[in-house]
Amino acid sequence: MIKHGASKLFSRSAFSSVQLARNGLFVQRLFTTANCFARSEHTTSPTSDQDASKYIKMFSIQSISKEGSLIESSANTCPTAKIIMDEPVALGGKGSGPTPLELSLASLSGCELITARYVARSMKMEIKTIECTKMQGKIDVRGMRGVNGIPAHFTHVDMVYEVDTEAEDDRIQELRARVEKACPVYQLFKAAGVVMNCEWKKKQ
Q1: Out of 25, 44, 107, 157, which residue is the most buried by the measure of CB atoms under 10 Å away?
Q2: What is the pTM of this model?
Q3: Are 47 and 53 spatial neighbours (Cβ–Cβ below 8 Å)?
Q4: Please, which residues have CB within 8 angstroms of residue 82's CB and are 6 or more apart in sequence?
Q5: Side by side, which strands form the sheet with 61-65?
Q6: Residue 134, SS3 per DSSP
Q7: Which residues of the chain have pLDDT under 50?
Q8: Does the 99-203 domain belong in CATH 3.30.300.20?
Q9: What percentage of the chain carries pLDDT values higher than 90?
């Protein structure tokens, strides 16, 4: 459960903020400008450390552990929007909100969907909707118990995206490839060695 609140924006030249209320979930979205998702063959690299410094952005949140397993977090971009996390009753929580692991999957799908909109714009690809119809993570809980040799993070993530567009499948697959390259959260999972099983297809 995430409570609603007012937005606080970064500099408009760097970011724009969109809030989405869907199925009771409030999401504070941060977007880089569409120029960040220009075609890869046209991108350039900073030529010095001094040049690179202006591209570095910091994101931060605050979290507090309340009774039991209840956690309340807020982001500096929208401090009045409280993100509530909890464990299910079966694990000793009260089920007051999604678990941190579930939110990590929500972050993955949300980041890919946001990135896809900007990439599609740079591709001049008309899209009505993009929907993540499956996002499922597999984890061996022995890793969370400290068993040697078993990672404590997800080992596999299966996801399906359905794109409502008139574009052909080759364009959808190009969109997917660019999104996976540019999406920060996708790259974070990938860098951790998570097996990412992704399917992007046209919505029927």
Answers
A1: 157
A2: 0.76
A3: no
A4: 2, 3, 5, 72, 73, 74
A5: 61-65, 71-75, 78-85
A6: strand
A7: 1-42
A8: yes
A9: 68
On the 0-12 / 13-18 / 19+ scale of CB atoms within 10 A, 104 is middle
Distance CA 14, CA 16 (A): 7
List, in order, residues 6 or more apart from 98 with CB less than 8 Å away.
Answer: 85, 86, 106
What tens digit of pLDDT does each residue of 2-22 get?
444 433 333 333 333 333 333
Q: Which residues contact 33 (CB under 8 A, 6 or more apart)?
A: 13, 14, 15, 16
Q: At what angle do helices 169-182 and 184-191 cross, to 10 degrees?
A: 70
Q: Record the tokens describing residue 182, joined without a space.
A: 């540019």
Contact of 67 with 119, CB cutoff 8 Å? no
Write the CB contacts of 136 (distance below 8 Å, at least 6 apart in sequence).
105, 157, 158, 159
pLDDT for residue 24:
34
Contacts of 106 (CB under 8 A, 6+ apart): 25, 98, 135
Per-domain boundaries in the chain? 60-97, 99-203
199: three-class secondary structure by DSSP: strand
In DSSP terms, which residues pair with 156 in a beta bridge? 138, 195
